[in-house]
Amino acid sequence: MRLGPGLLVTAAFIGPGTITTASVAGANFGFALIWTLLFSVIATILLQSMAARLGVTTGQDLATALRTTIKTPVFKLLAAFLVISAIGIGSAAYEAGNLSGASLGLQEILPSFNPLIWTPLIAILSVVLLYTGKHKVIEGALIVLVVLMSLVFISTLIMAAPPLTLVLKGFIPSLPDNSITTVLALIGTTIVPYNLFLHSGVLAQKHDKNKDIEKVIKETNVDTSISITLGGIITLAILSTASVAFYGTDAGKISAANMAVQLEPLLGGMAHYFFAIGLCAAGLTSAITAPLAGAYAVCGMLGWSTKMSNTRFKGVAIIILAFGAVVASLGLDPVAVIIFAQAANGLLLPIVTCYLVWLVNQKSIMGEYTNSVFVNVVVFPVLLLIFSLSIYKLFSLIF
């Protein structure tokens, strides 16, 4: 089988934010929070597999399914507001960080060039790629970047050579003092609501009634499992490298921006460039997938076409990208927009995940491809965690 749509999800959730969160986790708590990554990967595979199955079986993306199955006008309006706010506006807000991350990586690799050129150049390249409106072109570019990112971070991990016994010990759940915020941040950077819209949307466009649906679902499940596991391994590599380099030292504030430089004394000059290339690839992949996810969500909720080649779809994606480019280029502070998007995401994630689980259990929608009893039992604690995560996020934003 050919890997594809699942790697788009990996491309989306491994961005500068994930690099920063994993780096901070390793620097502050060593290997102790590796178990969080394992849990996050399993939860993400479960949810993304359901979203993918919805697209494969019905030919509808999640946003379209929400719009068409919610009958009460008030609830439909509320759902549209939440989705457009959390996914559309949120993607635009986070896009600034994605473009900045890719730009920082290029500055580290090519320091002799004017750093001001990178963000506009990356934005223009992303616009050109999105404007093609072609699945295969966009998917192919992202697969290359994900493979590059994987090779870079795994190579950096090998150079860091963390003790295997400590890595394995990290899979045993524990909560060091003051680690709860970092635990929730690690989970929150992996279980991302806009990926549910992205994954279902990409597969809905490939829907074909004449294909063997059961075979396609099996292939999609394998693709999803391998791709998201790869994303987990990349995050593990970043966390472990940061742990070896910084845990127990007075390293100062760790971030995606300075990780590359700070690794040089431990791993040598090549590690500096390796990490910078990885940061650039991570920023690029998220810079392309965030506008796509936002476009699927906004267009699906407004009843517009969700085909990549559609003018409205491309317009929404490019507006999201342009907003991020302006904020990143001018050095504006998108904090207010990000806080609003995070609050909307805090409300949206439990609603959307519950609705997704409800959708894939409806025979009238899914036919014979509804959830098994086993999947429903396994997904229940994931839903409890999502509700807890959302309550914590909203509480922290308010207080």
Automatic annotation (TrEMBL):
Signal peptide: none annotated. The chain crosses the membrane at residues 32-56, 77-96, 116-133, 140-160, 180-204, 225-247, 273-303, 315-332, 338-361, 373-395. Keywords: Membrane, Symport, Transmembrane, Transmembrane helix, Transport. Its main location: membrane. Pfam families: Nramp. It is a multi-pass membrane protein. It is found in: Membrane. The keyword Transmembrane applies. InterPro entries: NRAMP_fam. This is NRAMP (Natural resistance-associated macrophage protein) metal ion transporters. It comes from Pseudoalteromonas lipolytica. The lineage of its organism: Bacteria, Pseudomonadati, Pseudomonadota, Gammaproteobacteria, Alteromonadales.
